What does this fold into?
Amino acid sequence: MKKTSLISVVAIAAVSMLALAGCSSTPTATATAAQRACVILPDADSGTRWESGDRPALDKALTAAGYTTDIQNAQKDANKYATIADAQLAKGCGVMLLVDFQGAAVTVAAKAKKAGVPVIAYDRPIDGADYYVSFDNTVVGAMEGQAVLDGLKAAGKDPKTASIVYGSGDPTDGNAKMFLDGALSVLDAAGAKAAFTMKGTWDGPTAGTEFEQAFTALKGKVDAVLAPNDNNAAAIIAILDKNNLKVPVSGQDASVAGLQNVLLGKQTATVYKPFTIEATAASKLAIDLLKGNKPTEAKSNNGVPFLALSPILIKAGDVQQVVAAGDAKASDICTADVMAACTANGVK
It folds into this structure.
């Protein structure tokens, strides 16, 4: 009886060894995939943070922990987004961090789920994601709305009678509604109303065209602009400059252009969302998932565990805070036309 058992064991072992010999690359490939963090960014516009900020921050945090990264950019192309995702999933991912672009990440999240790959919605919410890491977007919007009110107060204008142009982010971005809702909660409470509402977009040139139409429709009577981000604000400010007009303009992202406009008094403030903090938080979550852990967050966004981070309002006197944090360089901000404002506000 013992002899039969021993033969059976040897036979099973032999079959196992043959199976391993025939598929020797599979465990290695699986292990490699399990160590890879796949990331898709939405665009590479000079006025956005993705390439200059998030890419290096995510790569640094993940590789420092011993994992490999596959970080690619969809270049504002939903079809390219899908193609990148298919290639990443075919190669293998242990986790995916996705910044949505016009809903393209929803299909990717579904494919990842089918493949057993956890998905972190990074910065923008995604239906079907397992986790969501972003700043508290309603608070971001409220800060933008407050920047408009602060600017009007400084100019001696009553928000109830001021001619305010309202802008918003791309409606396909789940964050855009939260930004706008936050801004409206502050503006509505102050009795402000939109004299003109622009089409929502994240694209700077489109925002410039929209604002020029608004400016014409209002016959140049513009007292303030609710701009959803620095990229929009820069295009709007270019139109204001062309018409020799300076009014309160909001924004967010603490981009170099945004910080310059804040220092020059052309933009009342920018909402600073330290991408290093967001990238670190998302990377920590990704590393937990790569290790096979299942972290949970107390806050929820439409049923998805949500790690909500705190934004910071940056006015001219606060710009050095962004530089000190390493999220912008004084040498980039303090160009010849901004140098005097940098000196006056201690930016170095």
About this structure: The mean pLDDT is 90. The longest strand covers residues 36-41. DSSP finds 14 helices and twelve strands in the chain. The CA atoms of residues 273 and 311 lie 5 Å apart.
